[in-house]
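Hi P.,

Sorry for the delay on this. The queue was packed all week, but I finally got your sequence through. Input first:
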Amino acid sequence: MVKKRHRVVVLVRPGLLPMELGIVHRLFAQAVSTSGEPLYELVTCTPRPGVVPTDTDFTINVAVGPEALEHADTVIVPAAQEDYGAQERGRIDAEVARALERIPRGARVASICTGSFVLAAAGLLHGRRATTHWKSCEEFRTLYPEIEVDADVLYTDDRGVLTSAGVASGIDLCLHMIRTDHGAAVANAVARGTVVPPHREGGQAQFVERPVTPPEQCSTAPAREFALRHLDQPLKLAELAGRASMSVRTFNRRFRQEAGLTPMQWITQQRVDRARQLLEKTDLPVDRIAVDAGFGTGTALRQHFHVALGVSPRAYRCTFRGAPDRSADTGA
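Then the structure:
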């Protein structure tokens, strides 16, 4: 029996940014099973089929209409030129609004860059955490106070509704969805094929325009490199600051500027990622993985895993290894 492929439908609008459409097709199309079978089916649709103008000097021809959304497992809304002008609360093209109403209940919905304004206007982000391009975050927050706007991250994932920051963070968003669906091994293979990092550090705070850093100020990169090599050991803030030749106060400030996270948040994120890799690729029990990833105990690993991913280590391993794990929660 042939397994049904996950259907990703991209809804494009006039003024489309072609790069964002290309990101989706390039990344999801590279995701294949161990036998080389494509894991996704990709469809591009538009509210009114035909020639769709872009924000460049060429157009694209989209033959599929909004009916494609009725059978989508994931819907992605890229940005369009109109998103970069002044926005009004709830303003959305009537045809786009009707198209979005076709999305089946339970489907995953995502936006790239300022496509988040479309999801917000349609009410899909109400009460959720979201992001958009850093230049538009303040306007987004003012127009939609009921949405928790996080201007620091590259993407958000809140109960099946996802948003990404600038154009290139669409890559991070797509890799995150592939990783969620099929595990780190598949996502890493896609990242290697695209020649991009499988997971970028920090958020878009590092890209916000700021005064040029004086040359005498050091980078926190040496401290991050040291931490990655010693995740299984206790990592003290003072020691990391010393690795970067900074005071703790300066190190904290510079780290957040460069990575978009506090040092401890970043370390926890790296440890969760290390644990995910070990759960996917080894048969080690959870207690051993907890030590190797730097959490110390299985209890601590389970707590951090649930906060970060919403599942237990045992459930995660079962999902991505396809077999019951008799030792995952026992330390056997």
